[in-house]
């Protein structure tokens, strides 16, 4: 696909992803009667279902990154050029804010309003490192062994990570920035966003290095075995 089509796919996909995350968070909070566990369950399941649909829809066009951390990994793996990657990240961030605005419009909320939801501290930064490392690990591993399973595996991991991380697994710098502009269930204080983003990029970088070695080593052993 030409670059314009790929960029449009990344913008649309990221927009819909944030509409799902924020919109389902608002709906869940309104219907859960104050039960945070029920609200988180609804939010995580909606996010997982939406992510499967979006990856299946846009994967053949742009690769369905929807995430600057995934795009960074693609650059490091020489699957995407630096210029294209910069444009990918730009439209992902713009799309993320568009998705927040779309969700707010559906629920009669202000277009943007800064979150007051405190999410900070070493445990949450470590959670974001783990969440992003794991997401990239799932993508790398499944892309090698069962590429058709990537949408389902990545979405399943995100649903699980909502629950096993203290940060509820943002695992995406564009998502983090945009969720700072919503004072709803899914929000994060703008002041807390940089710590999340640094941890996410660190997790993506580490996963790229680890799985670059791990999968290449496995492929080399397989080749040696077949030659023998």
From TrEMBL:
Give the membrane topology.
Answer: Multi-pass membrane protein
GO cellular component entries: membrane
Record flagged with keyword Magnesium: no
Q: Name one GO molecular function term.
A: channel activity
Tell me yes or no: is Transmembrane among this UniProt entry's keywords. Answer: yes
Q: Give the residues annotated as coiled coil.
A: none
**Family annotation (InterPro entries):** Aquaporin-like, Aquaporin_transptr, MIP, MIP_CS
Q: Which compartment or compartments is the protein found in?
A: Membrane
Pfam families cross-referenced by the UniProt entry: MIP
Q: Where are the transmembrane segments?
A: 7-28, 40-64, 85-105, 125-142, 149-165, 195-215
Superkingdom:
Bacteria
Alphabetical keyword list: Membrane, Transmembrane, Transmembrane helix, Transport
Q: PANTHER family, alphabetically?
A: AQUAPORIN NIP1-1-RELATED, AQUAPORIN NIP2-1
Q: Which family does it belong to?
A: Belongs to the MIP/aquaporin (TC 1.A.8) family.
Q: What name appears for this protein in its UniProt entry?
A: Aquaporin family protein
Q: Which organism is it from?
A: Chitinimonas arctica
């Amino acid at each position: 696909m030409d670059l314009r089509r790929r960029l449009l796919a990344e913008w649309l996909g990221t927009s819909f992803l944030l509409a799902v995350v924020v919109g389902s968070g608002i709906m869940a909070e309104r219907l859960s009667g104050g039960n945070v566990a029920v609200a988180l369950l609804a939010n995580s399941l909606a996010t997982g279902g939406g992510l499967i649909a979006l990856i299946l829809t846009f994967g053949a066009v742009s690769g369905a990154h929807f995430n600057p951390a995934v795009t960074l990994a693609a650059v490091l793996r020489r699957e995407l050029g630096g210029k294209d990657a910069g444009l990918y990240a730009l439209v992902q961030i713009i799309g993320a804010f568009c998705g927040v605005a779309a969700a707010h419009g559906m629920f009669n909320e202000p277009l943007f309003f800064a979150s007051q939801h405190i999410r900070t501290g070493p445990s949450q930064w470590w959670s974001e490192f783990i969440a992003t490392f794991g997401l990239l690990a799932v993508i790398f591993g499944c892309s090698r062994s069962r590429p058709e399973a990537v949408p389902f595996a990545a979405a399943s991991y995100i649903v699980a990570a909502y629950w096993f991380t203290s940060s509820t697994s943002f695992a995406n710098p564009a998502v983090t920035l945009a969720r700072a502009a919503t004072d709803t269930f899914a929000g994060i204080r703008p002041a807390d966003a940089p710590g999340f983003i640094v941890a996410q990029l660190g997790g993506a970088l580490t996963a790229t290095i680890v799985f670059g070695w791990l999968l290449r080593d496995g492929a080399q052993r397989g080749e040696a075995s077949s030659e023998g």
